[in-house]
Amino acid sequence: MVRASPDVESVPPEPMPSASGATRGAPATGEGLVWTRIVVVLLAWGLLASLAYLSVPRLQGMGEMRRITVDFWLAIATLTAAALGLLWWTWSTLSAAQRRRRASRKAQSQWAIAARHFQKNRLAMAGLVVMLLLYLVTLLTPLIAPFDPAAQGDIIASRYLSPSAEHWMGTDKFGRDIFSRVLYGARISLSIGFIAVTISITLGTLIGAVSGYFGGWVDGVLMRLTDMMLAFPRLVLLIVIIAMFENYSIWLVVVVLGLTGWMGTSRIVRGEVLSLREREFVQAARALGMGDLRIITRHVIPNTMAPVIVSATLGIGLTILTEASLSFLGLGVQPPTPSWGNMVSDGRDALTQAWWIATFPGLAIVLTVVAFNLLGDGLRDALDPRLRI
Predict the structure, then answer these.
(1) C-alpha angle with apex 375: 35 to 373, nearest 5 degrees?
(2) 41 contacts 88 by C-beta, under 8 angstroms
(3) What distance, in Å, lies between the first and last C-alpha atoms of the chain?
(4) Nearest by Cα to 190 from 333, 72, 68, 307
(5) Of 47, 138, 200, 355, which has the maximum CB count within 10 A?
(6) Residue 244: is it exposed, middle or buried by C-beta count within 10 angstroms (0-12/13-18/19+)?
(7) Rounded Cα–Cα distance for residues 120 and 378 (Å)
(8) What are the Cα distances from residue 252, in Å, to 192, 248, 249, 342, 372?
């Protein structure tokens, strides 16, 4: 029989927390979460009510319009869908039954785990909110813009007006409303960023998947092509390509931006495919007689979506910044079509007497790029299990 040493003092066991004490702290945490949800819901409804209030003058003037454009109907549909979606989100957020149903789900997928980790990142959530707000405002622009972005009134009386109640962001040298031009410029810049990144992500994913899956001379040829494209500075390459065309449209800018931004994605996808092609599920698919095309499209590419999503999110901000640089140099979107880049270019000669012309579109560029970067960093941390805390 082993006796305890007399030098060691016996430490009494710590008392177990009582059931009343355990349940006493739970309602506080739950109550705090409920109040947080209520505040977020109220802010969302306040924002939607503000957008609806700004839309009232245009909706009242529908009867006087000669022709209602597709953009106008799209804006009305977006406002209706936003109200219905916010109503559903309010019910699902504040419903106790929904919370209990979510808590009862023990088995969660990797996407659900990543979403939970993403929600803990406040900066990433802020970037997501700003991004959703930007695209919502972009779709509602025909309803909330107070003036035509290209309309010129009495230039002598309305040029270089400072921000006021009538013109929230002032006017430029032609008397055009800056606020309306910033809203319509958001449509151009965000659309260019989204479409160009879609082209580059699709092309980069295909090239990276084919290169990593087949290897050998196919990998060598495609990667040397990628290295050759990376050897040219992108901005210089864009300037050379666009300068070759005398009369070009906005679609040329979109295509050129998409065809010169796929290299980083192809390298990321290639690295993932080099690991995936040796996995058991790929070997099993080969044993079952599946072709290479089906294995790549059905089994390999879907398993590379996590880094591709992160690359796409970060790429949108970079593409918007590149388009603004081209427009600033006069090689992007051409006047009178408003773009954040050409608006900054228009205001550079009047920074001392009309600072608002370049300041507000410049702030819009900064806010958009920072929001997409925060969103991309949050997605990277959430989708990579090695970075989860």
Answers:
(1) 135
(2) no
(3) 46
(4) 333
(5) 200
(6) exposed
(7) 9
(8) 10, 6, 6, 17, 24
Asked if residue 336 has a cis previous peptide bond (ω within 30° of 0), the answer is yes
Tokens of 379: 């997605």
Q: Cβ distance 248 to 285 under 8 Å? A: no
Q: What's the distance, CA 22 to chain centroid?
A: 42
Identify whether 53 is part of a domain. no
The domain total for the chain is 1
pTM for the model: 0.78
Residue indicated by tokens 């305890």: 4
Q: How far, in whole angstroms, is CA 204 from its chain's centroid?
A: 19
- Buried b / exposed e over 118-153, threshold 16 CB at 10 Å, is beebeebeebbbbbeebbbbbbbbbbbbebebeeee
Q: List per-residue pLDDT tens for the chain, 389 residues long.
A: 444 444 444 444 444 444 444 433 333 344 555 677 778 888 888 988 888 888 888 888 777 777 778 888 888 898 899 999 989 888 877 675 455 555 545 446 677 777 788 888 888 888 899 999 999 998 899 888 888 888 887 778 888 888 988 888 989 888 899 999 999 999 888 888 899 999 999 999 999 999 999 988 999 999 999 999 888 888 888 888 888 887 777 888 888 889 888 998 999 999 989 888 888 888 888 888 888 888 888 888 888 888 888 888 888 888 888 888 888 888 888 888 888 888 888 888 888 888 999 999 999 999 999 999 898 888 888 877 665 55
354 close to 94: Cβ distance less than 8 angstroms: no
Q: Is residue 294 part of a domain?
A: yes
Judge whether 240 lies within some domain: yes
Give Rg (Cα) of the chain. Answer: 27
Q: How many residues in total does the chain contain?
A: 389
Domain that holds residue 276: 189-362
Q: What is the DSSP string of 348-371?
A: GGGTTT-THHHHHHHHHHHHHHHH
* 288 inside domain: yes
